[in-house]
Amino acid sequence: MFAAGEEPVGVRVLTYQSSRAIKQIIKGLDEEEILSIRASSFGKIIDIVDKPSFSGRFARYMMSRQLKVKKKHEVCFRFAGQPIRFSLREFAIVTGLPCGTFPPKWKMKIKETITEKPYWPSLYGKVEVVTVASVIKMLRRRTVRDRETRIKFACLAILSSVLLPTSLNTKISREHAEAIEDLDDFYSFPWGRWAYEMLMNSIKERDEISLSQNTIAVKGFALALQLVLVEAVPSLTEVVQETCSSSESESADDVEEGSERSSKKQTLSPAHARNLDKKTEVVYVKSIIDEDPSRPLDESTLGWSDDVEDVGVDNLVKLINEGYKFSASMFKGGATKSDVERMREDAKVRGKEKKSSKAPVKPTDVDGGNCEVAAVLMDMIKPDLDRIDGNVSSTMRAVDDMITKIGV
Fold it and tell me: Which segments carry the region annotation Disordered (predicted)?
């Protein structure tokens, strides 16, 4: 996307996910409960607690090193003169989550369950809103003692705070809760594909202009990017740094207490990554990471019905599999800083033209000229006005009928 040496220097990537939450969830479980989850499809997510935490600065560094591809559901990065592939396959490898196709009409079935016989009350009673922070407290204080229920609480908290977060104040999703009544069915559901789609959509919507901003917000499990890059470039973990600054992390969720919130954590060093990136002849890079032998994949289930042909990516993958030796000089083209500035100016012009082409209807009888507020208020009260108008009309018809009958 950007020419070599012309990559924007930003601050960090922000994301709603919380890798810290995993540590807090584990602390609330006993050994048997942890082993039970480790043996499931969520096992690798539990193991993330032993890896460097998400570094927003490192993610920002790599986001600016994307290669331009046509494929809708994968991206490629360049590091130390080598390409690194990030697709659903790589996501499945580092997370261990099922990433196959979704069951037929699964959304409709969940909606029917919520309407007809919801499972939510069996978990949380009459409580309408349950935050991840409150679930962690319940696990720690053993408010819930049934082992299977506690495991369900932990898995739902992982989904909402780590894999599929939609806000900083993470809450347990009712849809997720309905899917966990049968724990085996829950573990086999393709949560990985769902999480990957959320992450990839957020990455793909970023063009050269938005990637040039200092701070980029990314939805979904952004830590997966870092996990894949560490597998591809093991030397990235040779230098880690301790930090308690939120600028290196992804969120400020309220799941930690007291000294835990201010305790230091280990993250990748962006400075070390930059140094490695320059050593194109000596740094080992695995362009397509190896499959985990303990969790074999069925790659035939990892396709996309709406993907597009990309000869460039297909040739790149073919060369990688053939052991081709890439070099930094091969990755030519890309936008320069002046190109991005020109794109930004063009976007402003298009925005002005689009705005001027519209002919908004503005109310003229509002004092103070606050037309937008008046329009919003009018939309809000219009149903009531229509109802009143209808009542008046029906009343007038009734009066007319009465007058006709009595002959007045």
Answer: 242-273, 347-366
* Domain annotation covers residue 335: no
End position of a domain, from candidates 330, 355, 375: 330
352 domain residue, yes or no:
no
pLDDT over 60 at 248, yes or no: no
Domain count, the chain: 2
Is there a single domain that holds both residue 216 and residue 278? yes
**Do residues 37 and 170 both lie within one domain?**
yes
Closest CA relative to residue 256, chosen from 12, 16, 19, 14: 19
Lowest mean pLDDT among 76-80, 239-243, 276-280: 239-243
382 shares its domain with 249: no
Instruction: Tell me how far CA of residue 205 lies from CA of 23, 167, 218, 281, 293, in angstroms.
Output: 31, 18, 10, 33, 34
Is residue 193's pLDDT more than 80?
Answer: yes
Parent domain of 281: 12-330
For residue 363, give Cα distances in angstroms to 129, 370, 377, 378.
40, 9, 11, 10
The pLDDT of 117-144, averaged and rounded, is 95
* 51-101: pLDDT as tens digits: 999 998 899 889 888 998 999 999 999 999 999 999 999 999 999 999 999
Q: Does residue 2 lie in a domain region?
A: no
Above pLDDT 90, what percent of the chain?
Answer: 52
